[in-house]
Automatic annotation (TrEMBL):
It comes from Parasponia andersonii (Sponia andersonii). Pfam families: NAD_binding_6. The lineage of its organism: Eukaryota, Viridiplantae, Streptophyta, Embryophyta, Tracheophyta. InterPro entries: Fe_red_NAD-bd_6, FNR_nucleotide-bd. Residues 26-82 form the Ferric reductase NAD binding domain. This is Ferric reductase, NAD binding domain containing protein. Keywords: Oxidoreductase. GO terms for molecular function: oxidoreductase activity. Signal peptide: none annotated.
């Protein structure tokens, strides 16, 4: 099986400041929509993991943010595991 089917993306960005329809992030007190960011900025914020799920507990505990959200999609079992 091709590894591209096993990709898991961990996107590290600030918490969205608006509804999902108009997500934006704060950069030096400047509000900008994600679509307006240079591709390089998005590429630097993405970590791709192959072959296994990332260690979410470790990622969340290492986060310096006071408020962290996690978006999960997939089979029910996966969603429940992430919720724990």
């Amino acid at each position: 099986m091709d590894n591209s089917y096993k990709q898991i993306q961990n996107v590290e960005m600030a918490t969205p400041t608006a509804s999902p329809a108009s997500w934006s992030y704060v950069a030096s007190a400047d509000h900008r929509e994600l679509e307006s960011l240079p591709i390089q900025s998005l590429a630097q914020a993405i970590k791709v993991h192959f072959g296994a799920r990332p260690d979410l507990k470790k990622i969340l505990f290492e986060s310096k943010a006071s408020d962290v959200g996690v978006l999960v999609c997939g089979p029910r079992k996966t969603r429940h595991e992430v919720g724990r």
